[in-house]
Amino acid sequence: xxxxxxxxxxxxxxxxxxxxxxxxxxxxxxxxxxxxxxxxxxxxxxxxxxxxxxxxxxxxxxxxxxxxxxxxxxxxxxxxxxxxxxxxxxxxxxxxxxxxxxxxxxxxxxxxxxxxxxxxxxxxxxxxxxxxxxxxxxxxxxxxxxxxxxxxxxxxxxxxxxxxxxxxxxxxxxxxxxxxxxxxxxxxxxxxxxxxx
Amino acid sequence: xxxxxxxxxxxxxxxxxxxxxxxxxxxxxxxxxxxxxxxxxxxxxxxxxxxxxxxxxxxxxxxxxxxxxxxxxxxxxxxxxxxxxxxxxxxxxxxxxxxxxxxxxxxxxxxxxxxxxxxxxxxxxxxxxxxxxxxxxxxxxxxxxxxxxxxxxxxxxxxxxxxxxxxxxxxxxxxxxxxxx
Lengths: 197, 181
Description:
A: about 200 residues, alpha/beta, Oxidized Rhodanese, domain 1, 8 helices, about 10% strand, B: about 180 residues, two-stranded antiparallel ribbon, 6 helices, disordered C terminus
């Protein structure tokens, strides 16, 4: 019974268009992410800690990025890069590492969509943008979200220079909190929505 | 013709057990579909439990478990291999409940809030839930599964209906052929 069930399950996953590839490493930053001792043993990911400020999600992310050899930018730097004329010229690129639904609901205007869990789907559009850019800002939701790391590592693995890649640690949450505009729908749709500070 | 009280209570228990079987089947079908439609979300949830270190194993669990739940749900709704399916549900539900309970304890120690005030997405396919409610739900699902394992809820089973139909249609033939095969 269990064998038949398992055969059905793996077969269905294989056939499903949303099925997972068993041999792919979906978390290039690590399947298991050890939590520093300051947060307490067993503190799960996604759980706000009441411990020292050193255990804030942003600081944990900074530690992880350092381990991965990735650079980060904060909110003001991201905003500066967004207003930089080189962004319009394509020398600066923004990459949204969230899924399609979230991207369409609102992304940084002009950002390219790149869901790191389905990279092949996005490589044809994202790689030319990344190759042309001198600085690439990758973001996801912010906080303890690590999809931007996965996206950056995936891009690095296919030949995008590491020194070009920057993780916007605050992500779209900080962007909207800062009252910056978001674009809905596809890239350069022009459908802008201002967010309240 | 009178029916004895014991046969009445047995009939009531059987009817209730069939309803429990359908409920279990529907719950597993729903939860399985929710996960199977969003496998990446389920994969991320599973990762949060830090159960396995191998990406192959993590992917395999995330890929197969939702469809396995759908499989079990369909079997229960149809009434095929009910007792075998009940065993599989118990084998899945008991460890899940322990894992979710342990995670809730970890959250409680991190946030210092009352146990029943803990609310999180356990990756069970029903979104964010209060932990006490989730544990109660799982307890009921385990009780229903044990009940089915004990042999209740076998009315309106596809398998039994097919077998009784086959038996009915094959009996006259058997008599007509004087016991020959």
